[in-house]
Each structure stands twice: as structure tokens, then as C-alpha cells.
Amino acid sequence: MTLDNDTQTDAPVLVLGATSGIGALTVDEALGRGLHVRGFARGADAMGPRDGLKPFVGDAQNPEDLTRALQGVSAVIYALGIKERPAMIWQTETLFSRTTAALIDAMQATGVSRLVAVTGFGAGRSRDAMSKLEKLGHNAVLGRVYDDKSRQESLIMESGLDWTIARPVILTKGARTGTARVLRDPDEWRNGLISRSDVAAYLVDAVIEGLDIQRDVVLAR
Q1: Is 57 exposed, middle or buried (0-12, 13-18, 19+ CB in 10 A)?
Q2: pLDDT value for 132
Q3: What is the pLDDT, as a whole number, of residue 90?
């Protein structure tokens, strides 16, 4: 699905997790390219007024909120994250799979087919691309979180939607470089660094240009 000029002007893109991290940068990127954005977050009412932006206060675990937010949108960018905390080392994580399951149901019910979702390097099939040492450290700190991201990816792949799964490597706060690589061949998948701004740029590219539909990619510098 490629957005035509009329779609870019009129139908908003729904960004889940719009107030922080990659989600907030995705809002900036999309608005900068002339898209209308529906910014979904529990704290969306704190988003300042901007041309093209409509904040939407909602809980991504609430099917009714998701269904209302999806009305009339052209595509969805899923950029929900969690706050790092010591307990994530031992606590089972389910936020990503639960919100994704609810989102898929709501998208199917409302007829919205385009989904671009951020997970991370080490989730799903990309786990096999990690070295033994990388797996050891990753599992010790992020194992439970990425177990849920892997469940999330399975749900997306089985959804029948026009999905794209984007897995950034280690994130930095650097500026957008425009030189990030989209690694589509699993033989090329590797760890590294990438700025959140470069990730946001790819997410908007994927929506506008219809990139990588029903493909899972790794984003790296």
C-alpha cells in the first residue's frame, strides 16, 4: 500500500506510543512530511498544538479506545515501549503481545490493513542472527521483554494484515543521518547502532512508499 497525495493530505496515520521515544520522533517525522497524524497515548492530552496533529487519549490495551482511534485512518505505526526497570529482568512481560492482539482485532473489525510495527533486534527470527555472547547478555537483561516481542511478531505475521516488522539494533539519541540501512536478507542481519530518528524516518517511509509489506527487516547503521 502506497499513500497517494490525497491520502497523505486527508487520512491520518495513527501512531501508537506517540508521546515518547521512537513514537514521538515518528510524529515529528510524519508531520514534517505533510502527513496528518493521530497521536495515540494515555498522556496524549499533554501534546502541544501542531498543524496536522490530533492527539487521542487512549489505552492501547482497551479495544474500545483502539476501535475509536482507528476510524478513518490510512495506516498504523505501532511504537509502544516500556520504561526500563530492574523488575523487567525477572517479571514476565505481556504488554506487547496483549496490545498487539487487541490492535489486530480492532484493525480487522474496522478495515484498516496497513500496520508498521517496531520490535527490536533479537526478537523473532532475528534472534538466530545474534552471537552466543550477544544472546547471553541479551537474555540476562531483556529476555522476558523480548520473549513477548517474539510473541507479538508471531501475532502480526499471522494476522493477514499488510504488515511490516522493523527491528532496530541498539538505539542511540543521535540525529537523523539518512544513512541507515534496511537489512532485508536474514544473512545480513547483525547488531550495531542506529538513532531513534533514523528509525522514525524508516517507519514513515514504509507507510508512504508501501515498503516491505509482509516482511520483517532489521534496521542498522
Answers
A1: middle
A2: 85
A3: 59
